[in-house]
């Protein structure tokens, strides 16, 4: 399926399709026409004696420096070369591809004044599977993600290094030549148009939301498994009780948990007068409230992402009535805030999952299960250290929840005296999501082990999930090398295999 850029704003799913799954990109013909029209406005300013930012002046604190006509093409090349100044570990391929796609989408709005050729070359590079090498550090999130975007522009100019479609690190010029792509020779304003946007942080937001859609549903699943494995009650998840506090995310998570627990003989066996438990611990009873709050936070972040996907971010920008105006739309605060907000929600979701796991391992709280779910407690340690791993990750997630967007370090000789740090917000959220995946996987592994030690049979949904786990990980028994089993559970969680197993029985899970 080809993704057409320029006809309308991209959707989050389309961003993921191109960034993660290499969906081909096409540019709408009307968008190319609009680009050509606004390009004529920029070319009309090229010889103007009146200074125009980014066309006939320097950049940032050098905006008052007049650039002679014969040096204005060099100005654009110099801008890209000097701003391609990142450092540190290589940024993931999907993030770089998302960044390039976001910039292409802005070019296709026709508001940047770049030639159609620029957009066509970006699309060609994406379709060829060529990925510029970008270091982790270099963006302050204002004036956009300058260094990451500059590395992308540098590669399209045929300079710097890239990964080719095979994943090999090669000079950009060689990769372009092999793909039959002519390097761009930038003209007035085009270097600026290629680096001035929130594209990296927005790309990371779209990818994070896609991951969290599945992870929050999987957390609902594992929470329900924990309720079942700890002989909890499903009565507190009743729809009429949830409706007394009408948060939409809470209603969704409670419905998911009811669907997972439906038909559980274990839960049913404790709906008798003989059961003396009045109510369950918060990590069980309040799961819909916490998971639901995460869902509602995601809904707000998704709203911001959709608004940003509909934006044309550049400075200066060509307005709809043909003016070329400076502006501050490149500031990353709207995206930075929700990236940080999601990191807080992720940390709390993982924290609750770890607490449920810990309850399984404590004989004072696990309703008759062996200590640490060990085969022979004392000789065997069971899942004791798996919970340690969870605890270490959760501690890290709490540190990552500290917002990057509250920090600002002035730059460009105080011209850029307040910055968003949104790129940093996105980078730490990606690490947070990886940690959450691992925490949920360990809860699933632990709940499955506990349910294997229970009688009678678990709910049909739970049984399907356990069967999927058991295809990769053996059931209870003497201690084994645990790390590979945890990693297999992580893969099943990350790929959505556990959720797919649940949905095969309960298609209503969302």
Report what the structure shows.
The protein is mostly helical. The protein has two domains: 3-197, Orthogonal Bundle (Fumarase C, Chain B, domain 1); 204-408 and 415-505, Fumarase/aspartase (Central domain) (Fumarase C, Chain A, domain 2), CATH 1.20.200. The chain is 55% helix and 5% strand. It has 20 helices and nine strands. The strands form four sheets. It has a three-stranded antiparallel β-sheet. The longest helix has 31 residues, at 199-229. The radius of gyration is 26 Å and the shape is elongated. It catalyses: L-histidine = trans-urocanate + NH4(+). Belongs to the PAL/histidase family.
Q: Which range does the strand content fall in?
A: under 5%
Amino-to-carboxy terminus distance: 25 Å
Structure annotation, total helices = 20
Fraction of helical residues: 40-55%
Radius of gyration: 26 Å
Q: How are strands sequenced across the largest beta sheet?
A: 4-6-7
How does CATH name the architecture of the largest domain? Up-down Bundle
How does the major sheet shape up?
A: 3 strands, antiparallel
The name CATH uses for the topology of the largest domain is Fumarase C, Chain A, domain 2
What is the CATH class of the largest domain? Mainly Alpha
Shape: elongated
What pattern of helices and strands is seen along the backbone? Answer: EHEHHEHHEEHEEHHHHHHHHEEHHHHHH
Look at the structure and name the CATH superfamily of the largest domain. Fumarase/aspartase (Central domain)
Based on secondary structure, the structural category is mainly alpha
Q: Which consecutive residue ranges, at least 5 long each, have pLDDT under 50? A: none
Kindly give the count of domains: 2
* Mean residue pLDDT: 94
Count of extended strands: 9
């Amino acid at each position: 399926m080809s993704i057409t850029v320029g006809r309308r704003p991209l959707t989050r799913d389309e961003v993921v399709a191109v960034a993660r799954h290499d969906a081909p990109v096409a540019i709408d013909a009307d968008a190319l026409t609009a680009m050509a029209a606004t390009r004529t406005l920029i070319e009309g300013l090229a010889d103007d004696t009146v200074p125009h930012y980014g066309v006939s002046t320097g950049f940032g604190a050098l905006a008052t420096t007049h650039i002679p006509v014969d040096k204005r093409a060099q100005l654009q090349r110099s801008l890209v070369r000097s701003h391609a100044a990142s450092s540190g570990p290589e940024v993931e391929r999907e993030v770089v591809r998302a960044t390039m796609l976001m910039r292409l989408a802005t070019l296709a709005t026709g508001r940047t004044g770049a030639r159609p050729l620029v957009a066509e070359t970006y699309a060609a590079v994406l379709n060829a599977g060529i990925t510029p090498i970008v270091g982790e550090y270099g963006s302050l999130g204002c004036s956009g993600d300058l260094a990451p975007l500059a590395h992308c522009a540098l590669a399209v100019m045929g300079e710097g290094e890239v990964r080719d479609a095979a994943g090999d690190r090669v000079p950009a010029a060689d990769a372009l030549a092999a793909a039959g792509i002519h390097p761009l020779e930038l003209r007035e304003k085009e270097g600026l148009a290629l680096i001035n946007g929130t594209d990296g942080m927005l790309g990371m937001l779209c990818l994070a939301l896609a991951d969290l859609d599945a992870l929050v549903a999987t957390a609902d699943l594992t929470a329900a498994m924990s309720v079942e494995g700890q002989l909890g009650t499903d009565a507190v998840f009743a729809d009429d009780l949830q409706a007394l506090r009408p948060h939409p995310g809470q209603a969704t998570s409670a419905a998911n948990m009811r669907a997972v627990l439906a038909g559980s003989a274990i839960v049913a066996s404790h709906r008798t007068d003989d059961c003396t438990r009045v109510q369950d611990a918060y990590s069980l009873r309040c799961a819909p409230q916490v998971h639901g709050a995460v869902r509602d936070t995601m809904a707000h972040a998704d709203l911001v992402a959709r608004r940003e996907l509909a934006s044309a971010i550049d400075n200066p920008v060509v307005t709809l009535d043909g003016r070329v105006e400076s502006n501050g739309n490149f500031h990353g605060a709207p995206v930075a805030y929700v990236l940080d907000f999601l990191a807080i929600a992720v940390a709390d979701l993982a924290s609750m999952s770890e607490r449920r796991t810990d309850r399984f391992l404590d004989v004072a709280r696990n309703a008759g299960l062996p200590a640490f779910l060990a085969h022979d407690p004392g000789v065997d340690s069971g899942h004791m250290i798996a919970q340690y791993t969870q605890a270490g990750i959760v501690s890290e997630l709490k540190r990552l929840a500290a917002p990057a967007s509250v920090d600002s370090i002035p730059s460009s000789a105080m011209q850029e005296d307040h910055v968003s740090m949104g790129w940093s917000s996105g980078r730490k959220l990606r690490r947070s999501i990886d940690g959450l995946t691992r925490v949920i996987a360990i809860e699933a592994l632990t709940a499955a082990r506990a349910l294997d030690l229970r009688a009678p049979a678990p709910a049909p949904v739970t049984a399907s999930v356990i069967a999927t786990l058991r295809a990769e990980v053996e059931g209870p028994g003497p201690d084994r090398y645990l790390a590979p089993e945890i990693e297999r559970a992580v893969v099943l969680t990350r790929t959505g295999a556990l959720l797919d197993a649940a949905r095969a029985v309960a298609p209503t899970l969302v």
